[in-house]
Design a protein that fits this description.
Length: about 350
Amino acid sequence: MAAKIPATVVTGFLGAGKTTLIRHMLQNAQGKKIALIINEFGDLGVDGDILKGCGAEVCTEDDIVELSNGCICCTVADDFIPTMEALLARDPKPDHIVIETSGLALPQPLVRAFNWPGISTKVTVDGVVTVVDGRAVHDGQFAHNVAAVDAQRAQDENLDHETPLSELFEDQIACADMIVVNKIDLLDPAEADALTTRLKSESRAGVQVVKTSMGALPIDILLGQGIGAESDLEARHEVHHHHHHDDDEDDHHDHAHEHGHDEFESFIVNRGEIADAAAFAAQVADVIRANNILRLKGFVAIEGKPMRLTLQAVGPRVDTYFDQPFGDAPRTTRLVVIGEAGLDHAAITAALQA
């Protein structure tokens, strides 16, 4: 059976930086063919126009679908399911589907929709990414422009939930697999650390909280989480079962566009053959926990095995499988470590080589 196509749900209030995050992702897509579903409506959004400027090899105009009939979680059957079915019927199929929700959308009903019979065998939720405006959340506002959020709410005739922003924010955090604290440049280091600590305490165990500005998140961190969120709905329960929401964003924040990548770093650790694959996977998980590593991936040489072992870790969850023979290639272990800037290279290298 063909592998399911991964889909990433990007949620967060109007102005948090969702569109900026997605635009950066498309500009750094490393050849991935990405299809976008953008849930904008009324006169609020310019998301489609912004994103249509992205490179054709990654995301053509035909790969962008705008759902403009209102909040996506209130129009799942009428809008979202037919749109997904059309994308999944394409040839060639996209490598990845990214869904930018209305800021008013509850993520849980959307994730639940991936269990619908027409699409459940073909697509899976790779992860739910909640983008927050770091300055606004720190200040207790949740959205930078509350008036714009209220205007969006008033324009959505299909909206069937009314809820305070604070409660919607709790639902977005409860459903998240990754929380992206955006506009970190507007906070001082102590404020940023306090906010990320608080968000970690308010989210489920294992949820990664990352800091960035201008949405400059490496694609290796944003995509490929492999969560399967639609099979894990109990863990991401809605805090508030009545509906409420807010919308997309045109991030009115015009810094130099690319200064965010220095907030992340990666480096390579090499070592020789490994005696015990399971013990090494456990060792890798321990190193990740001790050093706040976001991603770790690479190939491992196991003593006596002709096949190389592929290792991929998202946070402390480590997956391994044998993929192909080494052949004439050197039998060495090579791992790429990815995380926020400031990783202790020496300590991590020593721990992985131990």
